[in-house]
Amino acid sequence: MNQKSTPNWQFTGNNGEFSLKHPDKSSFLYFPLVNEGGMMSSISPQLHGQVTTGHNTFLTPPISVEDLHNSRGSRNFWVYVEGKGAWSAAGNSARQHAQAYSDSADESLLEAGLLWHRITRENKELGIKAEVTSFVPCGTDTVELMKIVLTNTGTEEIRITPTAAVPLYARSADDLRDHRHVTSLLNRIYTSAYGVEVQPALSFDERGHRINHTSYGVFGAEEEGGQPAGFFPVQEDFIGEGGSLDWPEAVVLNAEPQIGHGGGIHKEGYEALGGLRFASAALLPGQSRSYVVVLAIESDRINISRLMSKYGASAAFDAYLEENKLFWAGKVNTVEFHTGDDDADQWMKWVTLQPVLRRLYGNSFLPYHDYGRGGRGWRDLWQDCLALLIMEPGDVRSLLLNNYAGVRIDGSNATIIGQQPGEFIADRNNIPRVWMDHGAWPFMTTMLYLNQSGDLDFLLQEQTYFRDSFMSRCRERDSSWEGAAGSSLRTADGNIYKGTILEHILLQNLVPFFNVGEHNNILLEGADWNDGLDMAAQRGESVTFTAFYASNLYELSMLLRTLKERTGQKTLVLAEEMVLLLDSLGDAVDYTSVSAKLERLKHFYAAAPNVVSGIRANLDIEQVADDLAQKAEWIFAHLRKNEWVASEHGDGWFNGYHNNDGERVEGEKAEGVRMTLTGQVFPLLGHAAAPEQIPHIIAAVERNLFDEKIGYRLNSNFGGIQQNLGRAFGFAFGHKENGAMFSHMTVMYGNALYKRGYVQEGHKVLDSLYNLSANFELSRIYPGVPEYINEQGRGMYTYLTGSASWLLLTMVTEVFGVKGQLGDLRLEPKLVKEQFDQEGKASIKTLFADRQLEVVYTSTGSAGYGEYQIHSVTLNGAEVTLQRVSEGVVIPRDVLSALPEGQVHQLQVVLA
Ligand code: G1P
């Protein structure tokens, strides 16, 4: 394969639109089509992919990424050209596959934008071109639309007979390997004027054998509403004995449809097909004919006349497509970047879209994401909020408040998240597992919210706690819990207990402080951020998350002091049991003693055994703040002294882990260097890494983890499976959580470098991520950031990744330095020279204080970062009196909230 000949995609418009020649020549490509109503599709250049509204309601067969090229069962649109034979407008026919490497191969071009997909395919020998446009209309209709325009590109008249063919799997993903055949016997297949509908009689899945109501349909119309000429509702009849979906007898032999015009006949008990035959038509040279195909999933029988009068015509399709483009542009353009590199700015539009995609798909339903049943994990829930705080800030307060209802009294949390906000479900599969990082994220996200909004009252708002049969961080079972009493924590006298959000946060960060292993770092438990470190639950320790928790404790102590200063609040009301964890207020614990810490924790568990007394303690806010600060400082000193790996190169880094044999994981060992990026990121992101340690860490990362070809690796090569650490090391080195460039950690590393003032270094990190992703020759992905780049440079698990949230956040708050400071706006740009355009400008449009702001930085002269300062600021042309802070300026919220809503306000910032 000559990779050099692979052209890159090109941006073609202002809203992220791009085109790619010969998308057929790259594998694994797919594109998301989705709406807020729950329709979740994916589409490949050959119209493969899947169409579903959830785990139990797949219209097409559920697939994994390999199926994109290996399975024949996809959306298809056939054209039988009289005298010349069958051709697939999707490029998905046995003949076209066989021609793939020959001169007879179709010419193909992909064009796509927010959120639509068009593939144009032409076969010169047949003299035919097909342009297939697909999208899922915005709004709540669970439909996917597809318009096919066939054009005669030859010099003679041709006669065509088109047939749409979409396999109607119509059931739960579980049935793929659980009675696939038997469940086809449940199918009730109806044909009517416009198409085929399947409503299985029962559903066989984990919910039991129940009457099924969900219906799935494929309908079509030609031009402005002409009905199909007939139907092929049964797959086996369509493909014929010995045939297949990529060479179906009904098309290849141009057979008469099984059911004629108007439908009306109903079939039972077979694998179904949305097979729609359109009337034969003559096409003169240059002449076109269009067809619209509608794929629909409904909770009951489909109202076909409503559906088709809305969507079943070419003009309607075009109108909804335009509406859809506007909808998505509106969403994505709440944040816009302008730098000296237009392509990079366009690319960021796709990154900006990604957090929204993750909100809609969860971590499932795209071809690489062939796991999960929808929904998101706890960690992702909180990190996805980071981006939503920037893009859709209106909803975030209630989202955060609801999420806190998942916290248990032992500082751990529910891991099964329900459909409704704030709905957490007890794990009835009895898998006792605690991810030790989970408690650390909520405070980080909440702090961002507080800074963006200044809403300190949020901290004092009350919320319930989650309770199930697990207690003491899954070390014990509550045999009294039966579920009947619900999933809310109660007091000894049976009332539902509520505590402030601040109390929830304190618990999440205080309990881990005491939950330490033999080296006095916080226990790894089930795993931390790296889900793959799951085999060290007894003795493993996560040093890196110890650093994260310590930074949280430190920030919390600062926040309490601010709370007192700003609101005059002198005391804190907390569950009385928590005083045990604020040990310095009473019976102080010796922090150097692991056993003393564990003893205190046991004491706390015993005092609040899945139930609380309901009695509150009134504590002095300063004393609580002091307690937290002492704990934080103790950890910082401990980590700097005991977990620093001194390198023989003169620099060093933080050891990130201890394994299940109690051994330090990282270091320059006889068998090679063992180092993790994760180990560095959290000490850098917070306060654990001392300023003088930072350059050493950077040097060690560059030496041990940076690889020209794939960027910053997640870890060096540990050289084999690590049964005392986790399954990640079972992956081949250079893949996923074992030594790939894992975008999430790379972006956090970049973010941390910016935060600590290492701007050139941070820029290098983000730039490498962009260049790796946007280099199509190697990455073979559409614009956007992938979950990881594998050892060959290929981008993997596209679209759904937490790294997009972090990248967006980093661009807004660090690179462009537009950030909240307890409600006020702080401007602290960290732009490097090449990010300014030719006129010395770089700008960002973003929301702050419910106002659309455009912040335009103008750098006079050729000053790069470190050489400029904010010289002056005007707001809509009027000079702003500046409040200078260390590296930037603060504009009080009042100034912004006095501005009218619904228009863009200009902040012109001169850097000199
Ligand atoms: C994924 C998960 C995330 C986890 C990470 C590492 O990353 O979603 O929760 O921390 O793997 O195991 P993402 O896909 O968000 O980049």
- The quaternary organization reads as single chain
Distance between the termini: 51 Å
- Rg value: 29 Å
CATH domain fold name of the domain at 10-332 = Beta-galactosidase, Chain A, domain 5
Q: Ligands bound here?
A: 1-O-phosphono-alpha-D-glucopyranose
CATH architecture name of the domain at 10-332 = Distorted Sandwich
Weakly predicted, low-confidence segments: none
The number of E-state strands comes to: 52
- Corresponding CATH superfamily of the domain at 10-332: Glycoside hydrolase, family 65, N-terminal domain
- Rough shape? globular
Strand order of the largest sheet: 1-2-8-9-10-11-23-17-14-13-20
Give the averaged pLDDT, no decimals. 95
Beta-strand level of the residues, as a percent range? 15-25%
* DSSP helix fraction: 25-40%
**What's the level 1 CATH class of the domain at 10-332?**
Mainly Beta
Number of helices: 22
**Major β-sheet, in short?**
11 strands, antiparallel
Structural class: alpha+beta
Domain Glycosyl hydrolase 94 supersandwich: 122-312
Protein name: Cellobiose phosphorylase
Domain Glycosyl hydrolase 94 catalytic: 625-817
Keywords: Glycosyltransferase, Transferase
Describe this structure in words.
This protein is globular. Among the domains are: 10-332, Glycoside hydrolase, family 65, N-terminal domain (Beta-galactosidase, Chain A, domain 5, Distorted Sandwich), CATH 2.70.98; 823-911, Maltose phosphorylase, domain 3, CATH 2.60.420. An 11-stranded antiparallel sheet has the order 1-2-8-9-10-11-23-17-14-13-20, covered by helices on one side. Strands 6, 7, 12, 18, 19, 21 and 22 form a 7-stranded antiparallel sheet that branches. The protein has 22 helices and 52 strands. With 912 residues, it is an alpha+beta fold. The longest helix has 25 residues, at 543-567. Helix 8 crosses helix 21 (803-815), helix 13 packs antiparallel against helix 15 (621-642) and helix 18 packs parallel to helix 21 (803-815). The structure holds 1-O-phosphono-alpha-D-glucopyranose (G1P).
